[in-house]
Amino acid sequence: MNLLSKRNVLLVLGILALLVAGLACNLPLRGRSEPTATPIPVTGASVEELATQVASAAATAASGGPIVLEFTEEQLTSAAALELQNAGETGVSGVQVYLRDGVIKITGTASQNGFDLPLTITLRVTADAQGLPHSEVVEAKVGPLSLPQSMIDQFTTSFDQLLTARFSEEAGAVAIDSINIADGKMTIVAHKR
């Protein structure tokens, strides 16, 4: 065996030893996997329920009463899936919207050039001093890659404008007092300006 092939063999053995050691360290974790969440169902009834709630809140606002909207994961997942379908969006599928621990987590599958990659966008939504919604992306990834800041900025701007437009469209000029996200629900409390 010449010197070059001995070095190659030693290099391969070294890498193999590191790989085996790494697998051995993680062996107790093998077989234990993250529990898979039950998919949130997508239904037309949930979207209709959402529209009814918003119309009811708008009527309450018109009479001067406080606005309280409570959205569920099923309502928002259904609305997002329907919106993607109506827009003819084929690049994102299997959208799920989770409302837990103060954040909105949107997951799905992004398809591009024949590759399917997991998509995750986690954002925190608050109301600013002027009563306008403000979203902040906590995490945005496609597969193992983080989305570029320019895409994140565009997403948050669009999300904030959409939320503001929806409120204004239904209830006129309103100020958001608080946004609470927990246990599968998002509660928005607002009042007419």
Tell me what the structure shows.
By secondary structure, the protein is of the alpha+beta class. It has 2 domains: 1-33; 44-192, no CATH class. 41% of the residues lie in helices and 35% in strands. The protein has helices at 3-25, 44-62, 73-86, 149-171; strands at 67-72, 92-100, 103-112, 115-127, 133-142, 145-146, 174-182, 185-192. The protein has a 5-stranded antiparallel sheet with strand order 2-3-4-5-6. Strands 1-8-7 form a 3-stranded antiparallel sheet. Strand 4 (115-127) and strand 5 (133-142) form a beta hairpin. The N and C termini lie far apart (85 Å). The relative contact order is 0.13. Residues 1-35 have low confidence and may be disordered.
Strand content: 25-35%
- According to DSSP, the number of beta strands is 8
Described by the principal axes of the CA atoms, the overall outline is globular
| Average pLDDT taken over every residue | 76
Read across the widest sheet, the strand sequence of neighbours is 2-3-4-5-6
Describe the biggest sheet? 5 strands, antiparallel
Whole-number count of domains: 2
Q: What structural class do helix, strand and pairing data support? A: alpha+beta
What's the quaternary structure here?
single chain
* Number of continuous helical runs: 4
C-alpha end-to-end distance = 85 Å
Structure described in brief:
41% of the residues lie in helices and 35% in strands.
